Amino acid sequence: MSGRELWADGRLRAAWADRDWPTLIRRYRALAGISQQTFGELVGMTQGYVSRLEHGRVRVTSEDVVARVVRGLRVPVELGGVRVGEDDPEWAPSVDLRERIAHAHRTGTADLRIADLIGGVLAQHRRAEDTVGGRTLWPIVRSQMDTVTRLIPAATGDAADQLMLLAAEHAHWLSWVAWREQQPGPALAWIDLAHGWAIDGGHPDMASWTQRIRAFYSLRSGDPVRAARTAEAARYAGPRGLSPAAEAAAVHQEAMAAAQLGERDRARRLADEAHALALRVPDEDERPGWLYWLSPARAHLQLADTAYVCHAWADAADGFREALPALAGVPRDRAHYEARLADAERRA
């Protein structure tokens, strides 16, 4: 019996929903015809620990144990698990994480000093990812996410909203790294969580940014129509409006999608608008933390990028050439734009 067929069993599904570990283990072993030893191998536990769980002698309180069960038993997505396929379940949000967020805004008090410290560490990791990549930093940021979300049920009011934003920032980072590591399913799961938390916490800039990221994913997946629609929606994130930097990011993404659709006049107009918005906040302190990189030089590179996609080769080459020196400390991005410069110069 395959994993999917096993999870069609009503008693197994009910045991999972109730977190009735003894019943779940006994039922799964009976359906699969496996021993405690084999079950333990599936979920990364010893036979002795599986036996104690099955007989109700220990309780499951660790998120790691739940995550092992989700991965090892291939708990399906409709039960809060992950899709079976190319995506590595290690990258996906866990069940316990979602449970903690679901209980946000309970009555209580939370110590935000820990959150402030974690926010500072995340800011450092954002910059480090530009040079060393995110795989090495993944477990650290994932652990920080757990710490932040454990504070949320004990927070109320502005404190809870602040924690929701920090959780959304972490989820966005995890989504971006998962995407770079070719894990599109988990990347979408994380960015959807980030968007929901941003909305719940009342943070329109982050809500817009997560929509902008979804538009980027759609564009890179070859769907410019969906990318344009999502990027346009990212510009309208609530009655309070967006900061100039957040709006600049959304407008630029809409410009790139329009260019892919062959709407070059619209794309260039949007690119100019995005560039002007970005120049309104030249200082990093004036921008949301996750847009630390949107300096005037980066805004100029984005303008050149749109020209490149619109096949305005001379304008693109001029823009890349002018702004590239600002990327001296970011070798990965510099290599990308140097390649585009060389191609634009060749075609001009």
Structure description:
The structure is a single chain. The protein is an all-alpha fold and 348 residues long. Among the domains are: 1-84, lambda repressor-like DNA-binding domains (434 Repressor (Amino-terminal Domain), Orthogonal Bundle), CATH 1.10.260; 93-181. 69% of the residues lie in helices and 0% in strands. The chain contains 18 helices and no strands. It has helices at residues 3-6, 10-18, 21-32, 36-43, 47-54, 63-72, 95-102, 112-132, 138-151, 157-180, 184-201, 204-220, 224-234, 244-260, 264-279, 296-309, 313-323, 331-347. The chain is elongated. The N and C termini lie far apart (61 Å). Residues 82-89 and 104-110 have low confidence and may be disordered.
Features:
single chain; 348 residues; mainly alpha; 434 Repressor (Amino-terminal Domain); 18 helices; 69% helix
Characterize this entry briefly.
Helices cover 69% and strands 0% of the residues. The protein is mainly α.
Q: What would you report as the Rg, rounded to the nearest angstrom?
A: 23 Å
**Largest pleated sheet:** none
The average pLDDT is 82
Order of helices and strands: HHHHHHHHHHHHHHHHHH
- Overall geometry comes to elongated
Helical content (DSSP H or I, runs of 4+): 55-70%
Total E-strand runs: 0
First CA to last CA: what distance?
61 Å
Beta strand %: under 5%
Structural class category: mainly alpha
Present the secondary structure layout.
Elements: H1 3-6, H2 10-18, H3 21-32, H4 36-43, H5 47-54, H6 63-72, H7 95-102, H8 112-132, H9 138-151, H10 157-180, H11 184-201, H12 204-220, H13 224-234, H14 244-260, H15 264-279, H16 296-309, H17 313-323, H18 331-347
Helix pairs in contact: 2-3, 4-5, 8-9, 8-10, 9-10, 10-11, 10-12, 11-12, 12-13, 12-14, 13-14, 14-15, 14-16, 15-16, 16-17, 17-18
